[in-house]
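Supplementary Note 3. Input sequence used for the single-chain structure prediction.
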Amino acid sequence: MHRESSRMATLIADLLLLARADESGLRLRRDDVDLDDLVYAERDRIAAHHPNLRLEVHVAPTRVQGDPQHLQRVLRNLLDNAARHAGGRVAIDLHADNRHADLTVSDDGPGIPAADRERVFDRFVRLDNARSRDGGGTGLGLAIARDIVATHGGTLTIGESPSGGAALHIRLPLKADPVAV
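The predicted structure, written as discrete structure tokens, is reproduced below.
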């Protein structure tokens, strides 16, 4: 009963977030965010919930401007998906150049077919092997993640990891571009 009520609470929160975003756009705080700290916090959470999962983490100190709660939600969605579909390994890579932060979450699971890589960002889309309520999500996590990343001026794309699974790549600007007056 507790697991089902928790799942329903998450679903309602996701639907409310999407409704607010549709009505007036996502409202973001613009703080300096140590993205590496968020990665470490989510790594620790995933490790506690999936003790048999091998986590490989390569993180460089990276600071962006944005909303820390929304960015943590993106990381949580990507890592939860990776852990759910992984064969046994999830990798997190974070680095930055002079202009962008690049974050990749990859797994060694079945991957996402090239034909479905844009479709999975649509609301309520779940691929056939993730349709069960116990094994799959609601089909909202990637849609929410992409909306949040786009609102931060970034991109979220899907490719193939070196181990054959999915690789989800986020690119965010290190600093918000100044608004022309």
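The chain has four helices and seven strands. The chain has a mean pLDDT of 84.
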